[in-house]
Amino acid sequence: MTKAKTVQTLIDEWSSIDQLLAELPEEQWKTPTALPGWSVQDVVAHIVGTELNLSGKQPPEVPGVREYPHVHNDIAALNECWVESMRAQSPADVHRLFREATATRAEALTAMSEEDFDAPSWTPAGQDTYARFMRIRVFDCWMHEQDVREAVDRPGHESGDPAEMSLDEISVALGYIVGKKAKAPQGSSVTFDLDGPVRRRLHVQVDGRATVVPQLAGEATATLTMSSTVFTRLAGGRMPVELGFGRTTVKGDADLAEKVAFALPFTI
Length: 268
Hints:
The protein has about 270 residues and is α+β, with helices and mostly antiparallel strands. The chain is built from eleven helices and seven strands. About 55% of the residues lie in helices and about 15% in strands. A hairpin with a 2-residue loop joins strand 1 and strand 2. This is Wyosine base formation.
């Protein structure tokens, strides 16, 4: 994945969010989302705050955020300070801040050298490269766009480069999900058959450790067929697993398939 492709995909994702926000009546900005404690405006404020933070700015201190029931760690507390700082602002002002923050970041990312872009960096997934961090930003922003769309009942943008890159990011976690969380037994295998809007077949083989593989030698021990929308909402912890599993077709070991489905939520 080249720097140019990653940066352009992130810019395209911001553009899609911008267009969505421009269509929303002011009252819909207060609509609750699937994220505990956050409205549509709060989700946008979170994106703004993250980009401001990546531009070198620090959030205002907000006493008591660690006491909020949906704040469980330091990163969540940092996020909440940004969100809280924008709660009293109008939707128009938060939308303006979104445009300003993402424009600044787009300019900085475009100007960044390939060497700096590929340099080692902290990421939300641990130590990696700045390039990986920006691929995670695509995933995060695309997931939040879907949070907003779901809340205001405006489905869309469920395929294309940002969706594909987001699925790439989820795929990285599938070995952990199947092997560590679902405790799939040695010698077993799991296939996720995504039948649209993004179509993919993702395979995990448990051989010593659970690993994502290009293909399996034979039939998977358990195959879960679902839409890419259900898959991403489950992986992001945005959908009750019982609901998502009810929209999933299972072939093979039903017990293993159920354990894998309930292990899918992995984001913080």
